[in-house]
Specification:
By secondary structure, the protein is α/β, with parallel strands linked by helices. The protein has 15 helices and 17 strands.
Length: about 475
Amino acid sequence: MTQAQDILRAPEPDYSQSLGVSASPTATFHSPLSSFGGVFSQRGQPKQLKPFNTQDIKILLLENVNQSGQDILTGQGYQVEFLKSSLPEDQLIEKIRDVHVIGIRSKTKLNKKVLSEAKNLLVIGCFCIGTNQVDLEYAAEHGIAVFNSPFANSRSVAELVIGEIIALARQLGDRSNEMHKGTWNKVSNKCWEIRGKTLGIVGYGHIGSQLSVLAEAMGMNVIYYDVVSLMALGTARQVPKLDDLLKEADFITLHVPELPETKKMISTEQLKMMKNGSYLINASRGTVVDIPALINAMRIGKIAGAALDVYPGEPRANGDYFNNSLNGWEEDLRSLSNIILTPHIGGSTEEAQRAIGVEVGDALVRYINQGITLGSVNMPEVNLRSLTLDEPNHARVIYIHQNIPGVLRMVNEILGNHNVDKQISDSRGDVAYLMADVSDVQTSDLKEIHDSLEALNSRIMTRVLY
């Protein structure tokens, strides 16, 4: 039997092939995807839908995406190009023109200028927590789904923060630097146990709540602030206002997304509210803390120590780049005592990166092969059970379109000459996503369906998987 096809914006496909089941390689990396189809299929073995010939799908992975993600994608038979670093914008534009899938981490910026050159791009995989490096609205408007891994590195970040709390309380960074310079400076002044101290967590999501449990197990009192009411774990206590947390906590750690409301949420006024001799930790987003204000607060002794893992501007690659040409205050920051500066490594553990590789890799394969959008951050979340080997002459129609009145009626008129086994549609803002499985279709039918959908004014992208 011949390989299944995907009809979309790519070069004109060959409709002469008979309908059939893909004979392409399957993933050798063990992941939840290997049993995904069976969960939704009630009638026999899942039928693996493939786009084009799998070797025609081109994937570009940047920034040293973990081997687990590479294995899942190469195991599907796709063409995968892997680079350890990000690319300058001009080189990225040149590369992205031909790819169907791009995988990035936090340094690559997929803005409108870059994405406008990506004529074949179907999907973006952010192998990290955040997606602020991608123009999500532009991507959605052009039918490009975006996936990420919002929770896989939560434990790694929480453990880093616990380590930093202890290191700051004991001034370990300063003592270590002194010893490396040959200076023996055994002191106990302003060195503390963390037992009995109050930890204030700003943002009680997956990271904040895990951190809460770890801190309480070490004898800390935990309070937290969040914009929504959340159930406390253990004996933690939610406070109604950020100001309340700032005034009460000995250690304050930030775990919030990058939003207009969180930009410089810790600045001069907030630092003044904090206890004299308290500590600040930011492992969330670089824009959340006003760094010059923090520098001033530490110079006058208001803040006894700080740990920063993220910064407003960060280098694109490893090297001697953390200097004043980046943000303008790096030298002042480095000159402070009892400050831990790390290069955005909160989620950089082997365990977290493997988990992220699996989660995002699986999501990309599900989207490419079956059109499933579960977990997408910019598309409606749509899913249908898998087609099975009992359904050989079926096709899956995916129509991404503008969310305007009358589209479903026109789409159903096009599909009306065929038996639609199942159909689902959902919208998100100005973009809608329709998926339908059609039975007893021939290759000539597929071309007719595809061309008719492409001709609609509402069309963003059309895919036909079979």
